[in-house]
Queue: 4 jobs
Job 1
Amino acid sequence: MQHPVIVGTGPLSPADVVAVARSGATVELHPDASAAMAASRAVVDALVDDGTPHYGVSTGFGALATKHIPLEQRTQLQRSLIRSHAASSGTEVDREVVRGLMLNRLSTLATGRTGVRPVVATTYAALLNAGITPVIGEYGSLGCSGDLAPLSHVALALMGEGDVRDARGRLVPAAEALATAGITPVELREKEGLALINGTDGMLGMLVLAASDLHLLLATADLAAAMSVEGLLGTDAVFAEDLHALRPHPGQVASAAGIRALLDGSPLIAEQLTSATGRHRFTRVQDAYSLRCAPQVHGAARATLAHAESVAAIELGSAIDNPVITPDGRIESNGNFHGAPVGYVLDFLAIAVADVASMSERRTDRFLDRARSHGLNPFLAHDPGVDSGHMIAQYTQAGIVSELKRLGQPASVDSIPSSAMQEDHVSMGWAAGLKLRRAIDGLTRVLAIEILTAARGLDMRDGGLQGWKDPSTGADAPGSSPTLRSSAPISAVRSRLRQDVAGPGTDRYLAPEIEAARLLVADGSLLAAAQAELPASAG
């Protein structure tokens, strides 16, 4: 059982966000958070009837900030703000995105810089712990003032209004879900509606989840590249440590070391050398860029990820609201809700994802071209002409890569003025986050097809189906146990893949095999199989 994530006045960790958003971990508010919220709420309460306009306390919002709101209408002001701003549309966003958004907002409330009463935060935490997930459409946030519409749907549920998914995933009215969970809806008071919706919490959650996914996928990209180098009878000489020390970008060095370890001891690589001269038998002077330059591209993606994580770390430790209650008791307007820092790195990661996938597709294509595969059947077909092999799997991969290039076009360079030109420059960070999530799904599929293809090519070099299990029946395939000429890590990956996907043979229904490979990439099974065979120093 997972331990609850403690939410206090300090920063969350990325692991906290992943645990709550993706794994359903519960949350607890630290006592220091309750004390900080009570102190800042006292500041707001002191301003309620002092006669001076205070944004969000005694005025309207956005372009209506100059309108004074009488004391007796301020509860209605908060309700109206949330109801009107809960205006999203389109496909329902994933549960993990909503939970990540909710945790990040709760963390900002807990800093004591927003002026909400502690009951607002404790009720917010109760929604998370009950597994209640407000329904949010994909459209509605411009990323400034933060993720207004998405956060408003959560605030609406806090009020007992709107639609939610319960812990079982059923679509129910919020009032019903709260009643079932024993949660009393909150009647919002001055400043609280604004405090619930002014933040970059949704785009930040998507950034943290994407970073978690990319750590796995970039390591898997190294694995896929190593399998392709081996299967295409390439050389591992270009991954030598001293060569990469000449250009020591940390990500590049790490990627080269990973590929080098994955290929270490490969009989297929060794067969390309003569014992007398140490020279390659084949006549090509150099491998293609998609093989030779994998560490440079994968390493650049790692550097991009490291930068994105540095931005996320700062954001996770920030208190984002407008206005904010400062530690010395002032209430101040500001622009910290602007999503540019997060939007930029979301877009930057989408560019890196597209390039890693593009290189993967090029390696896959080499297996299928008889002129470049060094002795393999055209398209890795069992009986070329009668069979098509992996011809259309590469088409699928190419179609995904083409879309990833479109998704690599940045959202954050766009801006559409809103709120009667009061909000005249916006970040589009929410859109950048949704775009990146789709790109990561695409990269997962592209890498799965490369691994599926490389494994088929390696199997064909080793005698096809011999000794493999038939996944549909569990029976031994014809022939004796195969002698795999792969390195130990790659042999382990091939064996794990063959538990779910049959080896080479006549054409079969291919889509389920691609999906099986995708699942093994996404859950880390293939990478884990390889890493289990690596020395501790390389793992």
Job 2
Amino acid sequence: MTESNRSETTPDWEKRFRAPRVSLPDWAEDAPDRSLFVSNATGTYELYAWDRATGEQRQVTDRPNGTTDGVLSPDGEWIWWFDDKDGDEFGIWRRQPFKGGPDEPAVPGLEPSYPAGLALARDGRTAVVGRSTDEDGTTIHLARTGEETTLLYRHRESAGVGDLSHDGSLIAIEHTEHGDAMHSALRVLRPDGTAVADLDDTKGGTEELGLEVLGFAPVDGDTRLLIGHQRRGRWEPLVWDVVKGGETDLDLDLPGDVSAEWYPDGSALLVAHSFEARSEVFRYDLASGALVKVPTPVGSLSGVTARPDGSVEYLWSSAAEPSTVRSTTGEVVLDPPGMKSPGSVPVEDVWVEGPGGRIHALVQKPAGATGPFPTVFDIHGGPTWHDSDSFAAGPAAWVDHGYAVVRVNYRGSTGYGRAWTDALKYRVGLIELEDIAAVREWAISSGLADPGKLILTGGSWGGYLTLLGLGTQPDAWTLGIAAVPVADYVTAYHDEMEVLKAMDRTLLGGTPEEVPDRFAASSPLTYVDEVTSPVYISAGVNDPRCPIRQIDNYVKRLEKRGAVHEVYRYDAGHGSLVVDERIKQVRLELDFAARHLGL
């Protein structure tokens, strides 16, 4: 079948998954014509090299389960990519010449691990590599070609590489030595491991405040580090001189969360502003303090970068329009050939009063139809994430089949201030479900949702909330569809990667042995015998985040009761990078819903 014939016979929902898409290209600091991006052009998400000067694009990786983690060296000579086994996230960094050639271990001698950040130097031979294992916690290493790799940092708690200064003399790391995995502190080291400076906003107060590394100034000898802080209740940038000790607080008059990166000459910042599920970009001049909006369409930006010529490239989409990589020059930066993705319906904003404050929900419904509709509550993962006015093939597929889709930015979501994000502690899962229940009541009372046809679904943390909701709110949901979920919180804790163990200790206040009642109260397994709705579960057998054993424990309890359920296991990790596999999973979910709702 030709591509044109296939396009004619393929339903719109499937076209959205099959249509070639690309990420925002990363570019080499000292060779800006050389770029690296991710694309699904072959049907599997892989890394691609792009020489802008010649227009040549070359596929870098080719693995059965795909590859998305890659870094282009500042000199543009090497592409580093992370080699794990079938999505288990445990492996080593390999590298390949930008122009092509055999792969080689990037840091010989470093054993496989989970990645904990990577920073590459401009000299082409130096790298700072972060690793995490269950045995060692986090270790950070300095690797130079032709020399022995040296250990810079080790701690049982989670940490990661932040950035390497432009001249390679300073290394910034994020760490959680204080035991709070939700709020990092910062440390700056010399390449010999000696400490230069520390910044820790978790000390000396009752509030829990986090810091993050945004990047060193791109100028030789410049000791300014751009960081993010939460001192005014939301994420904002400031400039910290790590040697002189001064801080320049930008205090931008923008609501919502604000991040930033340097313009290539270090004279200005590219400011990214996220507020109420949409985003915009500004240029902030460091000398004058002038903040000027960069023109972009209304919607969401999944990434932005300032180019050496002063232009800005960004990956943009809205709920109605598929993503494109654009430039403020007016050009479409990357337009992959092949089948084009159909659009979908716009998103509508809804605000609902909840037990912890106003809840923002995003609603899509079939065009031209009137409710009440069978309604899908599609719950985002994270939990430190948020749904936005951006294009998503999954919700669009439900809308195509006559469903309304409601997405809830529950307490724990980002983008609504620190207090909203940090509200989950100790009643994990139960707090989010209170907000989802409030939006559910609105959906029914407003006439949007058919109360007899309500689906609770989500992936990762959204899958966890699905299973927990089916057990704690059994009369509220007609059926549940959970992808890669936490199902048995205690077993998940013992089997998951170390960095997630640290997060769970922060969220619940200890280990399962130290706070067993909290783990029990937040575990779907505790309530499995209360589940009365049909349940569909999909899981990757190599998933290090929501491991398969704890899902099997939950499924065995369903089997013992004779509860209506279906399980689909596939050979990947925390989700699949193979387009056909993604389409298969959506088709199974749509079929499960139609059968049990009588549609």
Job 3
Amino acid sequence: MAAEQKQKLEQQLWNIANTLRGKMDADDFRDYILGFIFYKYLSTKMDLYANTILQPDGLSFQEVEGHQEETALLEEIKQLALDKLGYFLLPSELFSELARRGNAGGKNNFILGDLAKVLTHIEQSTMGSESEDDFGNLFSDLDLTSHKLGKSESDKNELIVKVLVHLDEIDFDLENTDSDVLGDAYEYLIGQFASGAGKKAGEFYTPQQVSSILAQLVTVGKDKLKSVYDPTCGSGSLLLRVAKEVKDVSAFYGQEMNPTTYNLCRMNMIMHDVHYKRFDIKNEDTLERPQHRDLRFEAIVANPPFSANWSASPLHMTDERFSAYGKLAPSSKADFAFVQHMVHQLDDNGTMAIVLPHGVLFRGGAEGHIRQYLIKEKNYLDAVIGLPANIFYGTSIPTCILVLKKDRNKDAERSRSILFIDASQHFEKVKTQNVLRTQDIDKIIDTYKNRTEEDKYSHIATIGRDAMHRVSHSVSHSASIAENDYNLNIPRYVDTFEEEDAIDLTAITTELRALATQAKTTDATIAGFCTELGIETPF
């Protein structure tokens, strides 16, 4: 039933989003529709919680306003709600009440002013409480005065009321605590906006197929995690995906530079019923101003912007994240700067998995130096996984996943080698996008877990130059990492060359003779027709 309910909810939400489509850019109506869904979610949670508190008194939350003990009851509910939910709403501020007032009597009544006050009050209700940072400026992208909603105040109000009334008709089924249908539907919408709006909207969203691979890689052999961290967390889909792979995650940490996407991430956490005390998401530039510098995490996942610019300031050479390497990533390609940052934040028993462009595997200069240091001096690199091209929104370039661990030396055999997987040819083409199927994902994870070799798919390459330490000779590409000068380009280790079928010269000669005979017969027929018509032959 959950799958059917989720599909129905997704369709309803997308239909509502289409109410706004055409009036504004995808990025803009994304902010409105997701913001209003979040407002309804907070209202429904508030109403359910308040009714639970008031049950012994035989009252509903709506009945409190006007009650002789209204002030005392609301104050008690507020204090309990701030601790439990992290915010507080009055009965008159609930989503359903605003939708009712906006559509009372079957006509559009002006509620824009009241709605703006309610959204502001949600944030104000948390001031001075433990949840203040988690709810501050959450609705800053919902500009109810924007001309994009309509030319006149009446036009704006009519559109907003229409959206609120449609949303009010949807039952989010929040009383079912085992269900995460709404959170998944919310993430579905984020994905839809990303796939439909090109690169700009796709920057903050990692396709679920890739999220699944990263999440499974960092949770191998574990059913609980103390912490998970994403230094470029976007809308939070990767962090939440990791939580689905284990029974429990004690704490979620993330950092996101874009303020709008940062708001989406916090909303996404709350919508997936992650308590505000269990997540710590910061809005800052991770490389320039890291916000969790002193913490170490058991699992780290990331899909950073590919080959982004960063300062590469010489001042960073005194930063413990970078100083040991003796080199900084180029200012035009921050890929390895993110790797270095994540390695610094990784706990000794942790695993990290990061998606990067293929260039990180073979580019020289400072990047080659950093790559060699990670392998030769630290021995952190555990696996290199090549993905198909064109699986990310907004870019068709092929990508790879690097998996790094700090405790590789516990396994003597593993510590001397790196696993290479070439999954670049294992996908299904859906319209203009390449998609990893369930069997493709399972094959990657099974190969990583079991550290198996398969001709033309995976190979275990030794790190050192000593041939005695080679793990396997089953693939012709058996040179060690050192012998390849720490170049990790996958074709150097996984031989994907396909021999062409042998040509049968005798059969081809016979075929050519038959064609020559057929040509003579055809020529004779044409010559006969030409004679009958009294014209010259064309040959």
Job 4
Amino acid sequence: MQKNIAIIGAGPTTLYFLCELLDKNVFPQSVVIFEKHAEPGKGTPFRNENASPNLLSNLKENEIPKLNVSFSAWLHEIYSENKVPTTLKTFLSRADYSEGSANKVIPRGVLGEYLSFCFNRAIQSLKQTGLDVTVKLHSEVKSIVLDNQQFTVDTNKERCSGFDRVVVNMGGDLCAKDKLDDALWAYPPKQYTHEDASEFNIDGMSLTAIDAALSIARTKGKFYDTASGLEYRSKHDFQVVMRSRSGVFPKVWYNSDAVADYKKILNADCAIDVSNVESFFRHKLLPLFKQSMPKIYHQIKNMSFAESLTFLNQRNGQSHPILKLKAELLSLADESRQSDWPAVIAAGIDYIQQSPLLLKDFLTQHQDIKSQLSASFASIPLESANRIIALYDSKVLTFEQTEDAKLEEDDNAEGIKINAKGIIECEDKLAKLKGLLTFSGKTYEREAFINGDEWSVTENHELLINGKSTQLYVGSAFVTPWYINIPGLGTCADFGKQIAHHCVQTDAYEEAVGE
């Protein structure tokens, strides 16, 4: 296909985009990938500076969408211990596939190395097909100009022209962030893990906040396995305070393998048609709870969807965060699947996402429950939960519930403030993308689009302005207005494949018409 494509961002979404091109065996004329950082394939969560020291993902091997080499093959055959970072060496030495390790999640650093390997392999494979593909690292995109159906990409280094299509696969850089005064971002942890600091105030109790607390703890002491359980010891006198509106953590790891089972049940149940989210919850999700988790069903059967999420997440301010963690750790041993209720919710949201009528109702009537959904899907790795409990037991960690979830001014000048609230969505998800794009020429008038005409993203991920095609594709779930779920590797795979598939389909159609 005689098309030149620019891709902004070299993270997992771009990796899956490239793998899809290889799978379909149809290629554009050229691909140029612009990446601000030095580690292609990894994306924001898995870069070395954000993954250290020894932070965990919440993914097991079978939860990684298929790539050009399996994780198991890469782990045991391709890399040897003398070729890999310390984090990976440790993981390799402990790696086993016994029943007891079924719930083990992969360290972020290890996952990042794997994604980077797959990315480089994909680039090599594309070059072997004859595709002109270039990866430009340390290239921060400053603007994208569309002039008479041709794109120009301006970076901090150069200007590149002649692109027929642009795929924007930046995630974190396009997310709205509400930064506190005098507070540091949670990533990279090396910003604040200082030996001489004695007080750390963390705004948030999400997975990001847990990463921050455990990074500090690792710098100042060690965790030990003892006869009575995990213990934390340190020679340093320091305190970590975590604060949030809810005052509790997200749920401990749950068996996401069950999501596919619940999806099948929902998709097979065609007996009842529902027209809005509340009726979907009443007539589709509740019967699923009744069938699979009767104990939970009897507790939530008279609640609304929002009320049931608040109850299930235990975010009503009545639970102590450590008691909640301990109860969830115990519930994982319950063979009745009572601890897997987030899998039902995840299957339900996927169903809503696939139904235009339900999706429209959700986006107009139920935006206020997104924080509850985030809490439902975010899962704390077992190891991280046990370490948080050990920090609390050692009296290093304390909690505060605040109304506005903002850190108050601290009289201690040496105290370090950390903003770990995670992604904060703005009302206009495409706001930062609008600032990145410039339109000129006869087809587009720049001022008209900057000043508030309708921007939308199709199901094929193409950006439309006032209903007009732009040939620019949005691969970031964080800025895609119609997307509900929290983005993860599965989302990266779906978006990357869908965008690649649509590009190939469109090109094939254009070629057929031309012939």
